[in-house]
Amino acid sequence: KGEGHVEGEKIENPDTGLYYDEYLRQVIDVLETDKHFREKLQTADIEEIKSGKLSRELDLVSHHVRTRLDELKRQEVARLRMLIKAKMDSVQDTGIDHQALLKQFEHLNHQNPDTFEPKDLDMLIKAVSTRYR
């Protein structure tokens, strides 16, 4: 009773139900550490975000932020590869096309597993937008 929001307190967001929810949250958290990107995000309307206009701002974030995003992407690719391996092990089918399996993960550019680029942010936004139409 009487408890209010405390300045600086982190508000827990509900789980989106997306299989890449943790990745999405980590990318947002890292992007919000960049002052310029945070300001652009706060002033952008939903159409600017969905159209990919906001994704182009990724080229202006600090080197530290880009390095952290690259690291997050590599971790997500490793997680997806582990899921694919588990799926392969469960069906014991050696004729599985790894690239075809990776294509089902539309929230990142699987053809570039090492660096987080504007295309990755755009794909992440579009994947979330498609899910919540």
TrEMBL record:
InterPro entries: NUCB1_N, Nucleobindin. GO terms for molecular function: calcium ion binding. The lineage of its organism: Eukaryota, Metazoa, Chordata, Craniata, Vertebrata. Keywords: Cytoplasm, Golgi apparatus, Membrane, Phosphoprotein, Repeat, Secreted, Signal. Its main location: cytoplasm. One of its GO terms (cellular component) is membrane. It comes from the Eukaryota. Residues 7-128 form the NUCB1-like N-terminal domain. This is NUCB2 protein. It comes from Chauna torquata (Southern screamer).
